[in-house]
Amino acid sequence: QSERLEAAIALAQHRGFVFPSGDIYGGTRSAWDYGPYGVALKENIKRQWWKTFVQRRGDMVGLDSAIILPTAVWESSGHLKVFSDPLTESLVTHKRYRADHLFEAYEEKHGHPPENGLADIPDPEHPDKVGQWTEIKMFSGMVKTYLGVVDDESGLHYMRPETAQGIFTDFKAVQQTMRRKPPFGIGQIGKAFRNEITPGNFIFRTREFEQMEIEFFVQPGTDEEWQQTWMDLCWKWFTGLGVDPENIRWFEHPKDKLAHYSKRTVDIEYRFGFVGSEWGELMGVANRTDYDLSVHQEKSGKDLSYFDPATNEKYIPYVIEPSFGLTRALMAFLVDAYHVEETTTADGKTDSRTVLRLDPRLAPFKIAVLPLSRNERLVPTAKEVADLLREHWDVDYDDAQAIGRRYRRQDEVGTPYCVTVDFDSLEDHAVTVRDRDTMQQVRIPIDQLVSHFAGLLVG
Ligand code: ATP
To answer: Per UniProt, where does substrate bind (predicted)?
Structure first.
């Protein structure tokens, strides 16, 4: 699996899915740019998510809240306090570690906490070097920025580390303007920022990333059932878009390790194949109870409860939060779709091809139009066919190199169908349509192409 991961990452980089940010200046490990195929894949993931969880549900609405919110939001939510970790640096290797993790590891091994604190703890890479640590410093996970004309602390603001808080602060406005009653939810897709200590593993952990989050507001007492419902829906979303169920699993957060707002959190993990730990968190479904709305009500002084006229009951809704990492999901879809297959060439030789078996709904391009050669009679017809199809779908056009090589290039980026314009096309006004997965070819009249693909490319 780790070889597959390496290969998928290499493909993503050399085929224009993902580039290191600022690469001409040496790049940065903590941010990545999405190239032409990457941005198309990312948009398609977002579209599928929005269709499934917002458009097709009568109990969901959408929102796009700001990235920089009033600082009071982060004071109330607890992020300014909780989002900071105790860090220490090894004087031996100059690597940074979370002190609480070092303490936990020590206690697990010895059955008791270190009596003299860091002084008792060896370097993880050099067990003979004990107690060689810098003083513990608190490190904030919040990304800071400064707004306003005066460049001083008065302008200090924070970039959101999750999209969720914008949903909580707008809860009342959405509920009232849309005249909703629980159970109902609000979905949002957008950037989030975290000053991660160790960004890495490609786009798995970055300082700037995207999330797709749902805050689903329910009557207290129905929360446990709703959490199970949302867990099932999230699992189904990934498998419905082609993720192999063998490559995902549930992880139940132990009660004593839950986030400060959570009653229960269950993650879906994906088998990324990282060296060291194969599985990595893909998304989580948390029961945030009435924690967030309650603290915002208390700190803002605004009533954030819901009054149910049918029962004359007033309550602060409980919240079930399915929280997806969009860029992490993109990485999982890429790795899961990556396949190398044995094939047989026309003259009977065995060959191999790399194919991204992306669900057609996610594929960056749905169709590639390929003239058999760069012939002056084929090219204009091929361009007309491409323009015809572009009205409906994302279409790639490629006339460089041999046709076999071009099929392979389209397989590599997951294009479900290739349309080849050959010399016969000039006579019979038909083209050859090749299927990415089966490599079967069928002849279709040009004037029936749109209806042919309309039947194949749905959703
Ligand atoms: P982790 O334990 O991996 O740091 P987390 O538990 O802090 O993640 P949440 O706060 O639950 O993550 O965030 C919800 C989702 O957002 C995660 O499941 C993940 O998909 C995504 N996410 C969180 N942090 C990052 C990051 N630094 N880079 C990319 N995606 C992230």
So the answer is: 98, 162, 209-213, 321-325
